[in-house]
Design a protein that fits this description.
Elements: H1 8-17, H2 24-38, H3 40-46, E1 48-53, E2 56-61, H4 65-72, H5 77-97, H6 101-108, E3 112-117
Helix pairs in contact: 1-5, 2-5, 4-5, 5-6
Length: 120
């Protein structure tokens, strides 16, 4: 997996801003992806899907979602923050590519992003 669905450049930039090494972050993203993918259908039922394409689905979830998920996965605050930031930066990059950046930024003012790699 190597950090998918987050692009390598996003992983490098996010790791540089966090207290996480560039080699740690892809593994942390992979751990989160395994958990998120297991609940893919629940995300589809319960949350707004902001985007689907490029091998991923992006959802807007409630504030605090990443804190709970990080605790469940045994991540430190800095590890959880780095993974959450990677998801946010990837969504914003998609927004720039699709001319939806303003829409995504507005959504992120009150919600958190979750990106799940496509299952096929």
């Amino acid at each position: 997996m190597a950090g998918e669905p987050i692009e390598g450049q996003i992983l490098l930039l996010t790791a540089a801003k966090a207290s996480i090494t560039p080699t740690q972050l892809p593994d942390l993203v992979d751990v989160a992806q395994k958990r998120l993918a297991a609940d893919r259908e629940r995300y589809r039922r319960e949350y707004e899907r902001l985007y689907e394409g490029d091998g991923l689905e992006a959802f807007a979830v409630e504030t605090g979602h990443w804190a709970a998920l990080g605790a469940e996965l045994g991540m430190s605050d800095s590890e959880r923050s780095a993974v959450e930031r990677a998801h946010e930066e990837q969504l914003l990059r998609i927004g720039r590519r699709t001319d939806r950046e303003d829409e995504f930024e507005t959504a992120l003012e009150i919600r958190e992003p979750v990106l799940i790699g496509s299952d096929g």
